[in-house]
Each structure stands twice: as C-alpha cells, then as structure tokens.
C-alpha cells in the first residue's frame, strides 16, 4: 500500500572548487531526495554544506572515462544548491506519511514515492554527469557514497525495529519480519514482498519493513545506471538521451500492460518502475533553457506542477490502477517543478513555496522520516491492539519527525566524511549487510523464535482449507475460465442451487455452509475470487479480471436456473463510494433473472489477528470471554440495507454476532477467526448458524429486512 521510499532517492548535489563533487540524495539528508531543499535565505550555507559532503578523491576503483567529446558537457555544468528540490522532497514524504497514518482525506498519498523516484533520477544523474565532465565516472566511489548515504540510517532503523518486533510479534509474524529484514539488507525487499504478497500472506499491518520495497527498487536501479552511463559515454553517443529514452518508453509500456495482467509485479518490480526514475535521468540530460519564460506562463506552470502531484494524493484510492498511466500525473508534476526551478529568471510562486524554511527542514530529514514512520505506525497499532485515534496519530507523526531529526544529526552526518576512502566504506557496508542478513536468516530458520513464549502456544487456525484455492476461489492472476463448476458444487441431494458469489469474505463462509448444508434451500455452488466484490461493472486494479468474473456470474444464474444467490464481500474495501449503487443495480439484475437474493453485510474485523489479542489478554487457550472491539463499521451495513428492494433479504453480521461494544473472537477455547477478518472453520459454522436463525433464507419481513 504504498508507498515509495524517499531514502531511495539521491541527495542533492553541489560543486566544490574545480573538482566535481556531489552528494547522493537519500531521504532525510540536506542533500537527499527525502531531505528537501533549505530555505532560500540559507541556500549558500547549505550549498557549502552539501559540497563538503561530496566525494573528491579518485580511487583505484574508478574507471576513468572522459566525456568532454561525448556531447554530455552541455548537461554537466555546475549547479547551485536547489532548496526547492528539498522542498519537493518534503511534500513527497509528508503525503506518504499522512497516507500511511490513515488520514482519510489523503487516500492517494502513495504517489509521494513516485515523486521521489523522479527527484532521485534527476539528482543522481546530474551528479554523475558533472563528475564525468571533470575527469571520469568513478564506480567504486559512487557505490561507496551509496553505502554511506543509505546504510547507516537503514541499519539504525532495522536495529530499533528488530528489538521492538522481538517483544511484540508472535512467531509467525516474526519469521516473516526476519525474512523481510534480510531482504531489506540485501536490497531485494521489493522481490521478497512481491513473492510473498499472496492473498493469505502476512497482512501489511504486521510488516514493519514493507515500505523498504522502494529502497530496493532504487538501489537496483543505481547498480545499473552508472554502468549504463559509462558505457554510453565510452561509445561517444551524440544523443546520450536516446537509449535512456527508449528504455523509459519500454518500461512505461510494460507497466501499463502489467497493470492488467500482473498488478502485484507491476507495483513492486524495477522493470515497471524504471521509467519513473528515468524521467529524472532524462531531465538531467536536457539542456538548460537560455531564455526566461514569461512570468504568467512561469506561474501557471508552477501551479500545474503542484496540482499534478497534490490532486492524485487527494483523489486516488487503493483501487486506482497504479503505477502505469496513473503514475504519470505526479511524475510529470515533479518534472515540471524541477525544470521550472532551474529556469533562468527565477522560479514561480510554487518554487518559492517549496524553498520555504519549514518544507526545507522536513526535506532534510525525509530519508530518516521515511524509514522510521512506517515501523512506528505498525508497532503502535500492535502495541495498542487497535487503530490509532487522532491524538495518537499526531503523536506518532511528531515522534517520526523527532526521531528523524536525531537520526539525521547523529546517524547520517557522522558517515558523510568528504575524504573517506571508498574501499573501507564498501567493506563496512558489506559486513553490516552480511550481519543483518544472518540475523534475519536466524529468525526465519527458527520459525520466529517461538521459545520467547514458553507459556503461550500459537497454533494454526483452520480456516481456508475448504475454499478450493484456484478452483472455486480464484486468485488475481486467474480468469473466470479457471473456475470448475463440477468441483465447486457441493451436492447434498437437493433440487436447485444456492450460488455463493463474492470475494474472500464470501469464501470464508464455505465451511459453515457445508456444516449446515441440510438447512440450505439447495446444493451449494461456490463462485468466489480474491478481492473481487460481487457487483457488476466493478473494475478492480488488484484483480484485473474481476469485471469478466462477475459478468459470468449472471450467465451462470441464467444458464443453470439458479434459485438462490448469496452475495457476501468485504464491502468496505478500497473505499469505493459507489458500492451501494453498484449493489442496487446488481441485485436488480439478479432478481430479473428469477432468483432470490440474500445479502450478507460486512462482517466484523479486528485490528489484530486474534492470536495477538489472546496473547496480550494472557488467554491460552482463549476462554469463552475472548472478546474485543472490532474495527468501526461506520454505518456501511445500514447503507447497504437501504438500497435493497423488499424482495431481498439482508443480514447484518455485526447485529447478529456482536453486542453494543465488542465481538467475540473466540468461544469455548476455540478461535472464531483465522486472521483479523476471515472466519476460521469454527467461526464460519457459528456465524452461518446464527445467520440462519436470523432468517437468512426466510422470506423477508419487510423492506427493512433482517437484523
């Protein structure tokens, strides 16, 4: 969910004396992508600071290649410190933090990561071009700078997070955490989360390092960029931008394609993200304008750049297809603002706003802020066993900025010695990476160190075994043709069929419907798909084939003469305001086919896995009083009920299963939930039995329907 890591970005650059010197952007540094520019008035001082952080020594690791005749010199001129770029970094990291904190009016804050990618590509490439113009690109020094910029704050964050995870996470979650820590240290976190992002893998709530995927994308990119640039220079290409532009176009096309057929890979992997970084690379290669833009045009361009970034942050949701074409507005907004700030004649009002002191101050600490904010949010939720309220959210954001400031001052800066040799830095980075990887491996191999809880046993909770994965419960990479009617029909010798249509919050009722099969009005026919709400016309980015899957449901009802249709889903997922209207239209079309419709509303969800709740309440096994406050349902079930016709029945699970304040997560020593939202087999049997008693298949009493 979210979110590109600002620390991936390269720090700002500056020129010191006659020798090329630049610092690579890292979220949270004065010259980092995450650490946005300083106040306009302090720019000279900050520029000197940045220059002092640069690398000036020429080590034996440096392959030297002159580019004076390669057509690059026009793009490699020295540049003054750009406080507006630091301000842009601040905007990017703030929208990411607000999004992750669950601020309702910032549902698209994940676009901040894309802004970071553009800034990073621009700043790093400008530095490499200036370095090349002054004598050659030093690969050893470049990678050593990356180690000094990225690793210290990352190691500090991993140390803090690991200590907290040791005390808070149960063995299954700690084992997953350990794997992600190893992947983060090795800069392959994006691949780890891509491969482990299956529908039933650890939820984002328990993954304090989920945000490091973006750092890995950047580091993978910067393993390749200097080599590619060095090769292009040695070939003396007259149009240096051309091969990079072609790769960017291919990457963008792949991202658009993968958005339909491999959305998870599209989100996490470098091939579909490279074009965003390459936009910054191409911008750095573009010659600077020699003529100032008219003032009116400059002002309009600045406002347009801000709008292209902020509008998606306010308007996009988790259901928005992304990246692909959806990432174009924020990326182009970043390109426009960066270009505008470097134009002759001064910037626009937007440039001056970005160069304001408060934004610059946040920009300077943005790398550390990005690293710290998500672990704090995750660990606070686990520690409190619920979502954060407004006051707690403010405290967490404040703590993020405070800790980021301390990290910037006492962790990042001490490692930015301008004359430090490359070899020791690379050796230290390798040793730290190896140590972190070994520590993570130990946590994974031990199964999450279960010996930490000698008096508490965490046992697997049966829940999904009867769903018939990939046959009756399809995954995001499957089309409806993978569904097997014969395998998905549970015959009990009755006439007619009861179609269970929905997502995983429909599939989790399968064990209960099987348990109470004799009380159903027909044989059960399961038709479910991960993340695919049973409403016609729904377009799901996560499940590209959802629309076709739902359209086929109508064809099934018509062809098989199905008499009863049960619609169930996680109705509140993806914050889609159109759910009530879509449900109304879907129910009308099903009724028009002669079927009876039975809608099951949003079932209770908890802020944590019941195993966490039981452990923190010191109940093993959970006793009959295993209850906790569910996540607020915010009246959604009432809205769903109101759009149904009188001929449809509706069951409100919260009304049937819960009291005024709490819902049971366990009964008689048995967990009722397999995770924070899906029923276990025992929970499904309990819930379905209560729904039947409430009249799920009975003729509706009125338009108001059932409890």
TrEMBL record:
InterPro entries documented for this protein: Acyl_transf_3_dom, Acyltransferase_3, SGNH
Span of domain Acyltransferase: 84-408
GO biological process, one term: lipopolysaccharide biosynthetic process
CC annotations in GO: membrane
Domain SGNH: 484-685
Region spans: Disordered: 35-61
Protein name: Acyltransferase
